[in-house]
Amino acid sequence: MKMKERKTLETILLISVLFAIECHSLPLSTSGRWVVDEEASGERVKLACVNWVSHLQPMVVEGLHKRPVGEIAGGIVSMGFNCVRLTWATYMFTRPSYGNRTVAESLGGLGLSQAKEGVAKNNPKLLNLSLVDAYEAVVDELGQHGVMVVLDNHVSNPKWCCAEGDGNGFFGDKYFHPKEWLQGLTIVANRFKDKSQVVAMSMRNELRGPNQTEHVWYKQIRKGATTIHSVNPNLLVIVSGLEFDTDLSFLKQKPLKLKTPNKLVFEAHWYSFSAIPKGVEWVKQPLNQICANRTEWFESRATFVGTGSNPAPFFLSEFGVDLRGVNARDNRFLSCFLAFVAQRDLDWALWTLQGSYYYKDGVVDPEETYGVLDYNWDKPRNPKFLKRMRILQHTLQVPNSNVSKYHLIFHPRSGRCVSVTGEEGQQHQIHGTDCKKGSRWSHDGNGGAIRLMGSGLCLKAAGEGVPAKLSTDCSSPQARWTLISASKLHIAAVGEKGEPLCLDGKISNSSSILTRKCICSLHGDGLDSNCHKNPQRQWFKFVPSNLP
């Protein structure tokens, strides 16, 4: 191994110790909209996961030819994830001719000689294990690093997912036999029932295709949930909806009733291209408008399950973007997405960990540009992305807190939160910082003051291109802040010359928060409906929290 690579890996392992995952007693349960610690005091446990693939044709957990599994698990911790959504194919567990192959036989049978040699070098103890035993060994390694595991039944026939007519989409499709599916759930729930790090099973990924119906969904989902719960009642049972896991809206008319007390979790997926052909609207439509439309769409079809009189936990089990930063669609989607998820403090799983695959769609060793690791699996592909999403890894809201609610002011373009520095009697500085250090604010409501909690000071606009400041004058127009765009991400007040000004977090060498002429807003340089400028530097979100 090259010295530079060795140092990189040593750094990752060191950081993994410094960023040790907060421990919770397992198993997990649910309480209202929350996933909680069942055996202790009912404290919230936030799932901040990354997907790790094992459902493709080789049926080997990806990356074992690039790095030792312990180093990969340590890197997961160092990047701030506390769990893995680990995918699996039904046939690997239900058909001995699949699952009894060794890792060497599976890779060799596909002509993947370099991958086989890589596993022999980096994970020699796994090379001659059966595929099922090797999968279990990865689960064990994750447990040794304190990482929780969600076992996700991704497909039946091992292959890339997902297409409308791939035969894996819905109950009764070519490869998706309901009885065999239930058999697979039984085998997996039983095999891992004594492993406390396995906290949940997701019944099926992205139900879809021309054969999907609500009637069959209710029938089979009840069977699947009952099967898992009867074998291992400790597991959370995660339920996906229809239309590539973007639609749970039918539950509004007919709730799903299961005999799985305090174990039911719903899931959905959200990408820039979800329910939009190639995601073109993110590029063609005004950004404030498309952000407003798509967040309303996702709320009405998915996250509503966590609200109302009978809420359930919601798990955003897939989201992701091209981490090379070259995809305009994804770049415009991401800030909108981060603001939405932070404000709701959702549980989630990023797509995806792997920087490459052994074999995908007939291609050997292809790169995964959505992968949080780079092609060689030795470092994060885009460290700036990890900084931007850091707030999502923090627990922001907990049930039964004795702390009054406050707000962080989050700038999704940078991943920073608005903070105040400066001692009493000195000039205060308003700037962006890590959200763990963000100042606590209260907002008197739309058109009201934004107050720094624990002080008599409030945020005030001073003028065009001038840093925002603190003032004891909280009733002047310069201190009365309004959400003025369709996205509800522009926070504006009136400047001292009577001009509308928005908070502005333009990314530069300085982290200062300025006030500038509003971009693409009702009071700025154009209405939301026809302004095609990029307003992201002026997007801020009030994110509620009640942590001490």
Fold and architecture overview:
This protein is of the alpha/beta class and 548 residues long. 26% of the residues lie in helices and 20% in strands. It has 14 helices and 25 strands. The chain has helices at 3-18, 69-78, 90-94, 96-99, 103-109, 113-122, 131-144, 178-191, 214-231, 281-284, 287-301, 328-344, 383-388, 390-393; strands at 28-31, 34-37, 48-52, 83-89, 148-155, 198-202, 236-240, 264-269, 314-319, 347-350, 359-360, 363-364, 406-411, 416-421, 429-433, 441-443, 450-452, 458-460, 466-467, 469-471, 482-483, 491-494, 500-504, 514-517, 541-545. The chain has an eight-stranded parallel barrel. The longest helix is centred in the middle third of the chain and has 18 residues, at 214-231. The two termini are 46 Å apart. The model is unreliable at 1-21 (pLDDT under 50).
Number of helices: 14
Count the beta strands: 25
β-sheet strand percentage: 15-25%
From the alpha carbons, calculate the radius of gyration and give it in angstroms: 24 Å
Question: What's the end-to-end separation, in Å?
Answer: 46 Å
* Mean pLDDT over the residues: 93
Largest sheet: 8 strands, parallel, barrel
Low-confidence stretches: 1-21
What is the share of helical residues? 25-40%
Shape: globular
Please state how the strands of the largest beta sheet are arranged side by side: 3-4-5-6-7-8-9-10
Q: Helices and strands: which structural class?
A: alpha/beta
